[in-house]
Amino acid sequence: MRSFPQRKQRQARIEIIPMIDVMMFLLVFFVLISTNVLPALGLNVALPGSAQPDPIKDEPLRITLTVDKDGAVYVDGQATPMADVAGRLKTLAGVKQAKVIIAGDGSSNLQTLVEVLDQLKSAGMPAASIVTKRQT
């Protein structure tokens, strides 16, 4: 009688290397997507240039006022009529001291900036910073 050699039973195991490959692909995918998608969420504003810009410091409460080239004002990314800017700033800041940053388009009207500063005064915001990009 002939007997066949018995096959060794292989124990099941988890293959780590393909799992690492998949994790690396996912990591690269999310990094590439986040770097390409996040700038698209911002408003399209051509910042004015400055020879010596200071870096923005991390503040506990920061409100961004954006003024586009057409004079439209956005408070933290939401379009807001000029007359409602002070009220919106008061609502966002509450009782806390907020740091206001103005990100204005370089070709926007100076009168719009003056009106924004008037709204800041009405809201009781003592100071604001203007965001610029470094001139080359």
UniProtKB/TrEMBL annotation:
What keywords sit in the KW lines?
Answer: Cell membrane, Membrane, Protein transport, Transmembrane, Transmembrane helix, Transport
Spell out the coiled coil positions from the record. Answer: none
GO CC aspect terms: plasma membrane
Q: Which GO terms describe its molecular function?
A: transmembrane transporter activity
Its membrane topology is listed as: Single-pass membrane protein; Single-pass type II membrane protein
- Tell me, which GO biological process terms does this entry list? protein transport
Main localization, broad class: membrane
Which InterPro entries has this protein been placed in?
A: ExbD
Cellular localisation: Cell membrane
Kindly indicate whether the keyword Cell membrane belongs to this entry.
yes
Q: Decide whether keyword Transmembrane helix is in the record.
A: yes
Please state which protein family the record places this protein in.
Belongs to the ExbD/TolR family.
Stated name of the protein: Uncharacterized protein
